[in-house]
Amino acid sequence: MTHTHVNAVEDDEPELLRDQFRQLLRYRAIIGAGIGIGLLGGVWFGVSNADTYVATSQVVLRAPVNDPFNPSISQDKTLNMGSERQTALSSSVAERAAQKLGWTGTLGKLQKDLQVTNPPQSQVLQFTYTADTPQAAADRANAVTRAYLDLRQKQWTDLRATMLAGQQKQLDEVAKKHDEKTKELDRMPDGAARDAEYGVKTNLLNRINELDARISQLKALDMSPGTIIRTASAPGYSDGPGLPMSLGLGALVGVALGLLAAWVRLVFDPAPRSAGDVARAVRAPVLGTLPRGATDVLLADEHTDARIAEEYRSVAFRLAYDQRFADRRRLLVVAPRGSNDAAVAVASHLAASFAETGKDVLLVEADLRDPTLAGRLRAHAATAPRWSSPAETEEGGWPTRRRLTVDAGESGSFGLVPGERVRNVARALTAPRVTRMIAEADSPNSTVVVLAPPVLNYADALALVDRVDGVLIVCDPRGVHRTDLQRIRELIAGAGGTVLGAVVHTPGGRRAAKRSAATRSIGRRGSGGGRSRLPAQADAESEEFAAEPEQIILGDGSDTVALRSLRAENLRTGDIRAGDR
Hints:
- The chain is of the alpha/beta class.
- The protein has three domains: 27-48 and 241-267; 53-230, Alpha-Beta Plaits; 287-570, P-loop containing nucleotide triphosphate hydrolases (Rossmann fold).
- It has helices at 13-24, 28-48, 75-78, 81-88, 91-101, 107-112, 134-187, 192-220, 243-267, 275-282, 306-320, 323-328, 341-356, 373-376, 390-394, 425-429, 432-438, 460-464, 482-494, 510-527, 535-545; strands at residues 53-61, 114-117, 124-131, 226-230, 286-289, 330-334, 360-365, 379-381, 404-407, 413-417, 446-451, 470-475, 498-504, 551-553, 559-561.
- The strands form three sheets. It has a nine-stranded mixed sheet with strand order 5-13-12-6-11-7-10-9-8, with helices on both faces.
- A hairpin with a 5-residue loop joins strand 9 (404-407) and strand 10.
- This is Lipopolysaccharide biosynthesis protein.
C-alpha cells in the first residue's frame, strides 16, 4: 500500500488567487449591496448633472513693456501666472462681474461655479463657468473674463500714474534748480568759480533730459493687460455624462466597492475559506467534499444522486490506501461542535463503503448521551460478540451483549453496537470491554468505525483516541472556525492520536433540515423502546425497503449500485427482529 501525504500541500500563488476569487463570490449579498450603492450613486450623479452647462473663455496675458518685439524681454519673468490666477478668482473680480451681470445673489454663489486654470508653459488663463442654462454659463464666463481684464488694466494704469507723478515731481524739482542755477551764472563774472557752477548746471540739465525720457517712456506704454483669444459661447449640450454613462460608471464603481468590502469580510472571516484552509488548520488532507445535502440521510437510496455514494466511496478508498489506517483499521469519526448529524451520516456511509469492499465492519456508536442509530438504521439482532461475556453483561453498563446487524442493501451489511444512556460516560468509555470491542479490528479483514460526540462539546472522543488513534473530522467550513479546527488537532495530538483527514460538507435546505429533525425525533423514540408496530404496517415497510436499488451504468459499460439510505418517512422505531446474523 502507498502512504498518503498527511501534510497539507501548499497551493501555488495562481491557485491561491483563484481560490480567493471563488471565496469572494460567497459574499454575494455584500457584492450586490456594493453594486446597488454604485448604481444609486450613478443615478444621482446622472440626474444632478443632467442640466449643467459649461462655457469657456481664454485670455492671453501680457505685461506693459517698452518694446514688445524685443526678444530680450521675457514675459515669463514679468508675469507670475500663479498670482494672476488668484487675482482672477478674487472677490474684486467677482464684484466687477456682478455689476456687469446685475447679479442679485451673494458673491460666494457667483464664485462657486467658476474655475480658472493655466495651461502649462503658457501665459493663458482659461475661465470655465458652470450654470443651469447655456446662455447663463456663457454670459457669466464672459463677464468674469472682462472684469478680470478691466481690473488688471486699472491696476497697471494706476501704477503708471503713480510712477508718472513721481517722475514729474522729480523733474519739477530739478528744473527749478536748473533755472536758479542759470540766473546765478548770469550774475557771476568769468573765472574758475563760474566754470565750476557751469558744470553743476550741465549736470542738472542731463538729469532733466533723463527724467523727460522716463516720462515719455511711461506715457508711451501700452497698458492693455491681455487679449481675449476665445469668447465663451452658449454650449449646445449639457456637460454631464448622461444617465446611461453614469449608470455604467456607477456599476463599475459598485463592483469595485463590493469586491473590496467582500475582500475585507473575507480577510476577517474566522471560518475556513476553502478546503485548503481546512487542510492547513488540521494539517491533514481533505479526503472528500460532499455535495449539498449529502449528510441529511444515512444511506443513499434509489432517489438520491449517485454522486453522494461515489463521494463516500472515494473517501473510503483514500482511507484504505493510507498506511496509518491500513495498519490498524480503526477509525474515529467526530464533528467539531454542535449537531452530530453529519458525523452520523459519514460514519454510516463509510461503514457501508468498507462493507462493500468485503471488509467485516463494526460500527460503534460511542455517543452515550444522545444515541439514535439503533432507531435510524435498519438493523436486527445478531449473535453475542466475542468481547462480551455473560458475567460482564449482568453487571450492566455499556457495551452490553446487544449487537445488531445493519442491512446496507447491495453494499452488504455491517455490525452495529448501538449507544446507550449510562450514568457515568467516562467510566463506560474506558471500560475493558470497550478496549476488547475495538480490538476486533486486529482480526484479519476487519474494520472498526467509532462514532463519538463532537470533540469541543464533550471529551468523549479524547477518551477513545488512545485505542482508536486514526481520527476523521467531519465539518462544515461555514459553521466552524479555523481556531476550532486547530484546537481539535492539538487535542487529538495531545491525546496520542493522529488526524487522518477531514470531510467537508454543505448543509441542505430547510426541507432537508426538517427531514433530519424528524429523523432524530423518530430515532429517539425508537431507541427508547417504543410500542411495537402493527403487523400490517411492518409488512408494508418491509416491502418498501425491499425495492430494488437503481442500476448506474459507468463509462466502461459496467454497472454499479448506489448506496441506499433511509429517509425520515421510512425510519423504523422498533424494527429489531430476533435472529442470527
